[in-house]
Amino acid sequence: MRLSLGFSPCPNDTFIFDALVNKKIDVEGLEFDVVLEDVETLNQWALEGKLDITKLSLPAFFRSMDHHVLLDSGSALGKGVGPLLISKSDVSYSKKEVQRSVIALPGANTTAHLLFSFAYPVTANKKFMIFSAIENAVLNEDAELGVIIHENRFTYQLKGLHKVIDLGEYWEEKMKVPIPLGAIAMKRTFDPSVTKQVSALIKKSLEYSFRNYPQITEYVKQHSQEMSEDVMRQHIDLYVNNYSLTLGEEGKRAIKTLLEVFNKLNGTTITSHHSLFL
User: Alpha helix locations (H) across 144-247?
Assistant: First the structure.
């Protein structure tokens, strides 16, 4: 059986999927047509139902969960892993000042946008762009503030930018659950046995990578060409953890909590006629 599979070129995703897509483990007769794209492109494709299996932000999953189920493996959840709100000047910003500012954000369907809206629910001046453009948008004053994710957490200070607030810390303090950033979803049209097989293979792929860590493979390097190996390891250490192996009850509770916040902020009552989880 051939399945289309999408994830980002970021080190956490390539680290998880390396052994699977490069057949370092037994893929049990399955074949994967792999596409690597930025997370907001994958989010949009999920809303369109383009791929069989995809990495996606949780808000994109909430908007498409009648058509997708979350796999137990491959997710990005954790503590101290949230997006940061940054500025060009090293000054403190009041809540009102943030709400009046032009904010650069990494896509309307990202969890970063949802976590920002959780902290600043009445902000109107939002500019959505690819996550890798946000630092320069703030430096060039195309936006007064920006919400950064992924490896930019490790590079913004080198560019002379300053943290205004850690949006993940704010979430953890208020909600007392881990930060659910992204997950792997699969179309509900597949037989549950195939879905369970794919989830188990992703777990085996990650276990293979963990056994060989801290080695950085060529597959991870080739998709992270502008990063030093040091930054790649920081990225993996931050975003890949036990929740990536299995969501567990705590991970599932965090995602359900995020869904409640999503509904409240959007004035919706999105529910699913199916279980959210595999």
Answer: 167-175, 192-212, 218-222, 229-239, 242-245
**Helix 248-266 vs helix 111-119: crossing angle, to nearest 10:** 60
Is 150 tagged catalytic? yes
Token digits of residue 270: 């999105």
End-to-end CA separation in angstroms for the chain: 20
DSSP assignment string, 117-155: HHHSTT---EEE--GGGHHHHHHTTSSSEEEE-GGGGGT
Which entry of 150, 235, 273, 274 is annotated as an active-site residue? 150
CB 167 within 8 A of CB 112: yes
Helix-, strand-, coil-residue percentages of the chain, each rounded to 5:
45, 20, 35
Q: How confident is the model at residue 275 (pLDDT cuts 50, 70, 90)?
A: confident
With beta carbons less than 8 A apart as the criterion, state whether 132 and 153 touch: no
Q: Structural domains in the chain?
A: 2-78+178-266 (3.40.190.10), 84-175 (3.40.190.10)
pLDDT band at 14 (very low <50, low <70, confident <90, very high): very high
Report the alpha-carbon angle 253-256-258, nearest 5.
110
